[in-house]
Design brief:
By secondary structure, the protein is an alpha+beta fold. It has helices at 46-52, 104-120, 126-140, and strands spanning 5-11, 14-19, 28-37, 62-71, 77-78, 85-88, 91-94, 144-146, 154-155, 166-170, 182-186. Strand 4 (62-71) and strand 5 (77-78) form a beta hairpin. The chain starts with a strand and ends with a strand.
Length: 188
């Protein structure tokens, strides 16, 4: 993939990098880059607290802060591929290995690393994963999957147990008749 993006500056110190390609999983990426400064008069500024707690070896006068926004093929958005964030003891924490002084060189390092992580993502698209899970559910429960609703059948409004991306459908026969049929209809 070729790293190509559109830059939109939304404030004096905030830029959005909208990457034009998608990764193997069909995801789209936006990187928000913010220039932050130490408040010299504030003894409790973040850089001073980070130094005091031993997370960094010196107070950063300026630093880059990034947020990432990833949209999957189902339209869901997540914060992923951000090197400044890592999982530790079951929660997200700052990865101080990627907290840099706000220089052009460091900005490029961050942009390149975000793009590298994004580009390296492998696996199913969110849509492929959803369809796989629907097939597994249908097989496990011996239920037919329909792409179009069979003639004379109706959606079962209010039936909440259908897998995500589907709705229950039925021929609406009475259970006692022995002719009741049901299935799941792909909602796409």
């Amino acid at each position: 993939m070729k790293k190509d993006y559109i830059i939109e500056q939304t404030a004096e110190t905030v830029w959005f990098y909208k990457f034009t390609d998608v990764n193997e999983k069909g995801e789209k990426l936006i990187l928000e880059l913010s220039l932050c400064e130490d408040w010299k008069k504030d003894k409790n500024s973040l850089p001073k607290l980070w130094k005091k707690e031993g997370y960094i070896d010196r107070v950063l006068e300026t630093y880059w802060s990034i947020q990432t926004y990833v949209e999957d093929t189902e339209g869901n958005s997540y914060g992923m591929y951000n090197p400044q964030s890592k999982r530790e003891n079951g929660r997200n924490v700052i990865n101080f290995d990627w907290m840099f002084e706000a220089t052009e060189e460091n900005k490029e390092k961050l942009i390149n690393e975000v793009y590298r992580l994004f580009s390296a993502a492998k696996g199913e698209t969110a849509t492929e994963e959803k369809h796989r899970k629907i097939r597994e559910y249908a097989k496990e429960h011996n239920i037919d999957i329909y792409k179009t609703i069979p003639k004379g059948w109706k959606e079962l409004n209010g039936a909440l147990t259908a897998p995500m991306g589907t709705v229950w459908v039925s021929n609406m026969e009475l259970f006692k008749s022995g002719n009741l049929k049901r299935g799941i209809l792909l909602a796409d």
